[in-house]
Design a protein that fits this description.
By secondary structure, the chain is α+β, with helices and mostly antiparallel strands. The chain contains 4 helices and 17 strands. The protein has one domain: Sandwich (Jelly Rolls).
Length: 277
């Protein structure tokens, strides 16, 4: 009887964990992830396991100590108080990132907080300045914008205002040569963006750096906002998966998934025939 109760306990625990992670994110799908929890110093660590670590820059060339603030979860990058600062991962040559986040479907996710209502500041940048190949997400005026180019003209996907001083979750689910879907706080804005159908590849040219808070290529469009929990995934996420991202920091979602796998494994180990009378 005791053995059977143990078995039942593991089954209930496994079911509970799996229910919490119905749309758990596979860590292998994470190309880059900046939790932004260092809170001080020059370095912004990539927690994806892919070693795409970034660093604070003054302008885009000089390594320097950046600005940190209280984030949506823990700490955050503070571009508002920084004054022409950005964060950059020098790709040099990173064909995996260029291909996975440009030629193949991908998702960009981050939290942003701002009160700025004028000018354009890039949040996540991978090229596309002056319609050069690449893409970026930005706060333009009060609104979120996603811009992309295959080198033959730009497309612009405008979305809702976020400049109210509150934290907002932004996610772009992108399928090159098909569509872009943008979600703000889990709500898809403006429907599918059919203009993407004309853009077969929006990969940046020659391994342009992945940057936060700036148009890195031209040292302009500096961001006046705070960013937290920034990630890029190697597939176009569904609405349910994006809603899962909006529930908490990615590291906790990944932890729940790992716990679910571990619990399932232990449940299988414990599921042995009972000989208790």
């Amino acid at each position: 009887m005791k053995v059977r109760m143990i078995q039942l306990g593991f089954i209930v625990l496994a079911a509970s964990v799996l229910a919490l992670s119905a749309y758990a994110i596979d860590k292998k799908s994470v190309l880059v992830y900046y939790p932004c929890d260092e809170g001080s110093g020059e370095d912004v660590k990539d927690a994806s396991g892919n070693d795409r670590h970034a660093e604070w820059r003054k302008g885009v060339t000089k390594r320097d100590v950046g600005k940190w603030t209280v984030g949506k979860f823990g700490k955050a990058l503070d571009f508002e108080a920084a004054g022409n600062y950005c964060v950059a991962y020098e790709t040099k040559k990173d064909p995996e990132l260029d291909e996975a986040a440009g030629s193949e479907p991908f998702t960009v996710s981050y939290w942003v907080q701002t009160t700025s209502k004028a000018g354009k500041g890039r949040t996540v940048d991978k090229g596309s300045h002056g319609c050069n190949k690449g893409w970026h997400s930005a706060v333009n005026g009060e609104k979120i914008i996603f811009e992309a180019s295959d080198g033959g003209g730009c497309i612009h996907h405008w979305d809702e205002a976020v400049s109210d001083g509150k934290w907002h979750h932004v996610a772009h689910s992108i399928i090159p040569a098909k569509t872009v879907k943008t979600y703000i706080d889990g709500v898809q804005e403006l429907g599918d963006f059919a203009a993407m159908a004309a853009k077969k590849s929006i990969s940046s040219e020659d391994g342009r750096p992945l940057a936060l808070g700036v148009s890195f290529e031209f040292n302009t469009e500096f961001l006046n906002a705070q960013l937290d929990d920034i990630a890029i995934f190697n597939y176009a996420m569904s609405k349910d998966e994006i809603n899962e991202l909006g529930k908490g920091p990615l590291k906790e979602i990944l932890a729940v998934e790992s716990m679910g796998k571990l619990t399932t494994t232990w449940g299988a180990i414990k599921m042995v025939p009972s000989t208790a009378k």
